[in-house]
Amino acid sequence: xxxxxxxxxxxxxxxxxxxxxxxxxxxxxxxxxxxxxxxxxxxxxxxxxxxxxxxxxxxxxxxxxxxxxxxxxxxxxxxxxxxxxxxxxxxxxxxxxxxxxxxxxxxxxxxxxxxxxxxxxxxxxxxxxxxxxxxxxxxxxxxxxxxxxxxxxxxxxxxxxxxxxxxxxxxxxxxxxxxxxxxxxxxxxxxxxxxxxxxxxxxxxxxxxxxxxxxxxxxxxxxxxxxxxxxxxxxxxxxxxxxxxxxxxxxxxxxxxxxxxxxxxxxxxxxxxxxxxxxxxxxxxxxxxxxxxxxxxxxxxxxxxxxxxx
Length: 310
What we know:
The chain has two domains: 2-199, Rossmann fold, CATH 3.40.50.170; 205-298, Formyl transferase, C-terminal domain (Methionyl-tRNA Fmet Formyltransferase, Chain A, domain 2). The chain is 25% helix and 26% strand. It has helices at residues 13-21, 47-54, 67-75, 92-95, 118-124, 160-183, 216-225, 293-298; strands spanning 2-7, 25-31, 35-37, 42-44, 59-61, 80-84, 101-106, 112-114, 129-136, 146-153, 198-199, 232-235, 241-244, 249-251, 262-265, 268-272, 277-279, 282-284, 291-292. The strands form five sheets. Strands 5-2-1-6-7-9-10 form a seven-stranded mixed sheet. The protein has a four-stranded antiparallel sheet with strand order 12-13-18-19. A four-stranded antiparallel sheet has the order 14-17-16-15. The chain is elongated and about 70 Å long.
C-alpha cells in the first residue's frame, strides 16, 4: 500500500517504523516544523522527521494543512494516510486524498479519553488499564469509527513515560494490522458511543499542584501522570516550589499528623495526606538538580513538623 504518514513526537516513531518495516511504500512524511529546544534553544527536528530522514523518506514540514499541501499529497495518490500524534486538524479535503482511508493511532480505548493527554489522564485518574485504538479520522476530534482496539494494563509503578513507550509499540503493530485489513477489504469499523465519551484535555502547569488533603493513592497517581511535564509540585513555607518525582511510596496506615506535614519514618521522608501518606523519592528545587528527599532533611530545607502546600 502507498502510505503518507503524518506525525511528530516520539510516540509516533514506532508507527512509522512499523509501516516501513512491513514493506509498505511510505512516499511522504508530514511533520511539524523544527522547534527551538534545550538550553541553547537551537532548532531541532521532530523525532518523526529524524526517523524519516534515516529511512530516506521525503519530509514536508507543516504548521497548518493548506490547499497547497493538500494538492501535493493528492498528486502522490496515496492509498492510506496514517496519522499518529500529528497535532494538526485535518480538513476533509485532505483526508479525501487517501484512496482507501485516512486512519489514526490513538493511545486510549476510545471513546474514553479523547483529546490531547489520554495517557496522562488515565494514570492520574487511577485507571488500571488503557489501550490503543486505530480509527478513521473524522472532522470531530478522535470521534471516527474504530477499526481495531487492544487493551494494555497500567502497572502501579507506571509513569506517563513508561506507559507511553508500550502503547507506542502496540500502536505501530496495530497500525500495520489495520493497513493490511484495509488492503484486503476486511474492515468493518464500529461507530463510537457518544454517550460514553470521556475527555482528556491538555495538561496545564497548575495541574501539577499537590493538594495534600487528598488520599495518598490519588496523589501518587497524580505524581506518576505528571512526568515528563508539568511535574507534580508543592510549595515550601518559604514559598519556593519543590518538584516531586516518581516513584513515591504509599503509606497506608493512619498517621498522627496534619495533611502536608513532613514526618520521618525511620530514615524515610514522609508527607502526611488526607488519608495515609507518601514517602518521597526524588525532589527538586528551582535551579537545582534532582536529589533524594533525605538530603533535603540533612540540608535543613525540609524539617519534621513542617507543613507543605500552604
